[in-house]
Design brief:
Keywords (chains A, B): Kinase, Transferase
Pfam family, one (chains A, B): Cytidylate_kin2
GO molecular function (chains A, B): kinase activity
Oligomer: homodimer
Strand order of the largest sheet of chain A: 2-3-1-4-5
Low-confidence stretches of chain A: 56-61
Organism (chains A, B): [Eubacterium] hominis
Protein name (chains A, B): Cytidylate kinase-like family protein
Number of domains of chain A: 1
Shape of chain A: globular
Number of helices of chain A: 8
CATH architecture of chain A: 3-Layer(aba) Sandwich
Amino acid sequence: MKKKTIITISRQFGSGGREIGKKLAEQLNIPFYDKELIEIAAKESGMDKELFEEEGTRTSRGFHLLGALGYSLGGPLSTMTELSLNDRLFIVQSEVVKQVADQGACVIVGRCADYVLNDRDDVLHVFIHADMEDRKERAIHSYEVDERDIESSVRKIDKRRSNYYEYYTDRKWGAADNYDISINTSTFGIDRSVAIIKDVIENKEL
Amino acid sequence: MKKKTIITISRQFGSGGREIGKKLAEQLNIPFYDKELIEIAAKESGMDKELFEEEGTRTSRGFHLLGALGYSLGGPLSTMTELSLNDRLFIVQSEVVKQVADQGACVIVGRCADYVLNDRDDVLHVFIHADMEDRKERAIHSYEVDERDIESSVRKIDKRRSNYYEYYTDRKWGAADNYDISINTSTFGIDRSVAIIKDVIENKEL
């Protein structure tokens, strides 16, 4: 296989995907992008940073259909005045994802990066998931989500990610076949999951 | 994690999942079950082997709902007279899956084994998938599927597997979070996929 130097991580809420991405980037000594992408997107577009912070909710029939209407990710912002704010945010963010990928090896968490970078063959696409009990635990301890109705909160955040992903990509979020490898952190733990990903990209000649 | 000695493999048609299972069993020197399970199920139940060969099609509202009606996988065949033939075949087959798992380390391909053995913590559940182009290629060369309408044939077989799985398990076929690890053989190839699975079960202390 072609050497994979860029790693995208999609993840269920509370699965440890972000932590895996961070550790992986540290161990491989390459840049890590999650919220950092927002800073760049805000700076480049002149749009308010806070607008990017909450991944948008679906507001129209399906962004992926816009291609048929003549819009393209590569178009200048000035042609996007008819698009919704969320759609413009997505376009700006996607351009930033492509830019950082052009700069070389890195780890990118979220932002539909698996879809945005789908055409490149130097990217490994990873999905991280975990059993609900572990996700609830992590949500309480790492993200300080309220313990009351914790399962429903976790499911709601997943639902938002799933809606966002499916709106912009027309793919099924969490379907194994969007990714090169999917890993359950309840089975392997965080460190072993990092090791598995490192192993699969480093054994590039096999 | 608990040592994983039993491996279940679910797979998209044409992804190479069966070949991976076979190689894995050879390299680990443990039994391999695919069609072999049918022989055992036919022998034990006295039912015709040919009946088991085509994984059934959906005939009622959802097999997983039968539990609520008092049926259980553990019940004797004599109590199953009200069930459809397909449901009885599934029950017999599931019992055989449990039996071979009780006998120790093995590789089991298909048969909803990931669902049937869900309660055991010594089982690694794997999903194997691949890009459509590679699956078409494998379907033509390994399974002698007619080249005309090959993509539609591949999708039809997947659809049958997916219907069967979802009818009997009430889970989404191919959703990453049913499995411990999911691997794209278009990215890694067959031998590297075998090596990844061996690696994740052998590094059991991490």
